[in-house]
Amino acid sequence: MGLRFLTIFILLLLPCGYGATEARGGEILDYTLRVSFDIPASRISGLAKIPVQSGQEIKLNKGTLQLLDIRLDGKKIDFPRHDQIVRIFPSRQGVMEIRYAGTFNFPKPPEGTLEQGAMNVPSDVVDGRGIFLAGMWYPQPDQMCNYHLTATLPEGYEAISEAETIRKSTNDGQTIFSFTFPHPLDSIHLSATNRYTIVQDHFNDIQILAYFFHEDARLAQTYIQNTKRYLRLYENLIGRYPYKRFSIVENFLPTGYSMPTYTLLGKEVVRLPFIVETSLGHEILHQWFGNLVYVNTEKGNWSEGLTTYLADHLYEEQKGLGFQYRKDLLIDYQSYVNDKNEFPLKDFQGRTDFASKAIGYGKAAMVFHMLKTLIGERAFYASLKYFTAEMRFKKASWEDLRRAFEKNSAKDLSWFFNQWIDGRGLPELRVEDVKIKPREGKFEVHLVITQKKGVYEADLPVVFYSGAGKTRNLFHIDKEKNSLRVLLDDIPSRLVIDEDYDLARRLTPGEFPPVIARLIGDEEKMIVLPTSRAGVYERVIDTFRKSGATVRESKDITDADLRSASLIILGAQNPLAERLYGTIKEEGGFTITIKEDPWNSRKVVGIIQAQSKEETDAALAKIFHYGRYTRLSFDHGRNVLRQVAASGRGLAKDLVKEPIAVDPAKAKSLPEVIDHVAAKKIIYAGEIHDRFSHHVVQLEIIKNLHRTGRKVAIGMEMFQRPVQKILDDYVAGKVEERDFLKKSEYFRRWGFDFNLYRPILQFARSEHIPVVALNIPKEIVDKVARSGLESLTGEEKKDVPTGMDFSDAAYKERLAKVFQEHESLRDRPFDFFYQAQILWDEAMSESIDTFLREQPGYQMVVLAGNGHLAHGSGIPQRTMRRNGYDYAVVLNDVEIEKDVATYVVYPGVVEMEGSPKLMVSLREEDGKVTIEGFSAGSVSQKAGLQVGDTILALDQTPIQSVDDARIDLLSRKKGEKVRVKILRKNSITGDKELEFEVALQ
Questions:
Q1: How far apart are CA 20 and CA 23, in angstroms?
Q2: pTM
Q3: Quick one: which of 136, 212, 230, 330 could link to 281 by a disulfide (CB 3.0–4.6 Å)?
Q4: Is 650 inside any structural domain?
Q5: What's the pLDDT tens digit per position in 212-247?
Q6: 589 near 615, Cβ under 8 Å?
Q7: What are phi and psi of 891, to 5 degrees?
Q8: 964, 962, 965: which is closest to 998 by C-alpha?
């Protein structure tokens, strides 16, 4: 009972006839209906007969029908002909006869509207394809009736309606069908066509019939055999099938209806191979829930959730995938339901949009799952058997269900139903604190679970993982802050809360993948126009704009926009797509890819690309039926690819880092490592900048590759792009080291002791190995770290790479930890720090790619900090995104982690004769270098220098910048004595030039 429709792809099937009010005073009318048809004219003619009592109000909804005549025992009754609801008060007892007519053409569905989970299927059609009547095709009373239907059709037609028995007769080239259903109904339905082949079979004493179009008759036996399987399943679970017959009926419209004694499936649906494994069983189960026990929709529609749970969910559970199905329900809920459209289950009457479906089907299914877990499987199914027996052919509510479950479980479930049926929303859980301490040879775990957005009472499953396996515990929570304790035999390395999704709850960010549903369900959406070929996306723009999305050009999108709205980016080469995710590969057909918004994890970005307007028009409407997917591709409207992004299972928290074991017997020497990575196009050699041993390893890699005759280039994080010319001149031997350091501003822009890198650069100079400055100007990175990318001027933005990918969530998480560990950074927004880091990485990646494209015969050794290379997140994967070149990562002195690098080298300490020091801090201003302070035990302070002295020269070398001083010291040795000439100001005796001899430290 209850009209509802089935999309071809999301097959959530409902019984027909929902929505009628409870019969007044329990009255049930006898309603005899005779209909005939003029099919070419799409016209129906009918005669309805209703026995009435004196003074009894009869209220009829005529819809679009034309009421021709109403008589009581042959005498005309006046009635308001223009009112849709006709009220009649018979003056005496008798039989009221209503003659009527109506025309039902197939209306063209509206275009350019955002799909809300329902296809535009007309409720009543009469035309050459056949007859489909499920709406106001007869004057409908506002109460339940015992219907007696007779339909006259052209010869060759077969008809189906709610019926325990169907009688056929012929008269003058017409076929007359009489339908008998001995139970009260809200409404009746009729389908007919001249295209059917009928196949019959039996299951026990139940007659099974398949009404299939001639061209699909081969499918009949498959449907019949699976029908037997489902009848056997559900008779065991909830009791005997309630009728004498069940029919599977093919329809010319894309329907998926369930009426007492039959199901009506569209032709596109029955041809899909998976329907017999999914939706057919759902339809059959509705024969019990909705068609045997009716739904009192005024008190909440329970049938959809229960049928979803015991059909769609049960089939996945039987395959071991019940947890994933439940997670998908929660993904839908979180995607479509918000504070504005959320309502309690007791108010759900029927599906009207994605949000109502997520509540009435999804949340309700989760409630039944929690109920089964609470009272046990045996009591759960005993309750359903009792419920269907007690409420057969009656309208049932959530209250009737509660009484059945309480009776068979001997539990007071009022709190459960009050919380989950009468209340709104879902709990939001967080692990606030976990402590582990030894106790009597075991380990006591204390964890604090908090609830956000309301307090719920529930049993919370928690799994503790250790080297010995896993231990499952159930904790009862009922407060905003819940302190829980458990004693375990082994120290747990990890805990996971609700990993099987047994609790209806809000998902944490790590469990919530970027999917199409999140884009559709977001109230704040923004369309980002392509830079060209906008006509290709005309329907996308129109569809989403009509749903409230704003339309902007990519150049106008600010960081604030990225945080406030989910985006629909049109075109793979859209500048905003490149700005967020780097270069995106162009594809044919029609593709939609959903990514997490890097600036707001609660938002998503949908990148849509299409080869033509025709591809867009053929595919767009279909994406709304694939809400649980991250990526879809279509070819001329046919789905050819669907993927879901990986996400976590359960609310997980690492407690103790899993130990990693290394087999020393398999350890390699550095030459072996170099030999193994030598064939890679790019070799990334990491460093901690001030560890000379790391630079020795880097130099060994370069030397070994060079000895084999390979054309090697060196990419260096330490130099910025504007100094490439002077760097080239130094390597070519055109300038000396002093000029090179001065003009490259090495000490100002990098600052680490040049002796750390000197051997590498000297080797490159001696062997004429190209050295590539990878970095962009330090000023730009610093500015972004302070104020964000949007703060850059137009001129500064010229140095920003054309494509930057902000979507690496694991990298972002690692950077967040680094950010939190540095007190000096906390006065800045993390977003700006993150933008600066990605800018830094992408700029170096772009420099590598540019060189290798211009010099394809070279391979490159890239020297950069370990943090830019670990796990491939910083530079390596970004460069591979640009050019696809294979790479190896060799890191020095990092903690062993899974996939941290290709190799980790532990070189030990290598002493370096660093530059000697004056042990002063200097300030440079207007060509003068002034002493600001001294380090502890400073040799310069002991020699007599003072704060405020201006250094004029070291021996005969003039000092006009800090770089001058550092360059001069490079050529000296520790212990060497240097004459420091200074200018000391004195307001009384006047300024004096003085000289001091300092033994360098």
A1: 9
A2: 0.86
A3: 230
A4: no
A5: 999 999 999 999 999 999 999 999 999 999 999 999
A6: yes
A7: -110, 155
A8: 965
